[in-house]
Amino acid sequence: MTKEELATLLDELEIQVNEGIQSDENTSVYPRIVYWEFIWDSLTASGDEYDTKVTYQVSFFSQTPRHKKLLELKQKLNEKGLFPIINHEYIQEDKHFHSYFALEVLENV
Questions:
Q1: Which of 32, 45, 59, 88 has the most crowded Cβ, counting Cβ within 10 A?
Q2: What are 80-107's pLDDT values in tens digits?
Q3: What share of the chain is helix, strand, coil (3-state, %, to 5)?
Q4: pTM over 0.85
Q5: Using 50, 70 and 90 to split pLDDT, how confident is the model at 23?
Q6: Nearest in space to 15 (alpha carbons), one of 4, 3, 26, 25
Q7: Which residues contact 36 (CB under 8 A, 6 or more apart)?
Q8: 3-11 and 68-79 helices cross at what angle (nearest 10)?
Q9: In terms of C-beta distances under 8 Å and separation of at least 24 residues, what long-range contacts does 62-68 make, across chains too?
């Protein structure tokens, strides 16, 4: 999967999506996704870099567990042959669920 394919897949869910940081106006919008890169791994051949494997965290916020849009996201990833381990936590302070996973994509950084 490329970054462009990831962005398209997330947009197809037709919910609020932000890359990098969450905008202030979206902090109380549910469901929503925020995703950002946290690992760059250079792919090399013969001592030269030819591409970069970038790992993103994808965070899904909702007011209910197993939200239908989270299940739709999981299904879309599975259809692409991607089966990330999805972690869940309940944020008592804000009374919402946070589901998150790491996903590796190829990018020309």
A1: 32
A2: 999 999 999 999 998 999 999 999 999 9
A3: 20, 45, 30
A4: yes
A5: low
A6: 26
A7: 19, 20, 21, 56, 57
A8: 140
A9: 62/30, 62/31, 62/96, 62/97, 62/99, 63/30, 63/31, 63/95, 63/96, 63/97, 64/97, 65/90, 65/97, 67/31, 67/97
Retrieve residue 7's tokens.
């962005």
In the numeric block, the tokens 């990831």 are attached to 6
What does the block give as tokens for 103?
């996903």
30-39 — which CB contacts under 8 Å span 24+ positions? Answer: 30/61, 30/62, 30/63, 30/96, 31/60, 31/61, 31/62, 31/63, 31/67, 31/69, 31/70, 32/60, 32/61, 33/58, 33/59, 33/60, 33/61, 33/73, 34/59, 34/61, 35/6, 35/10, 35/59, 38/102
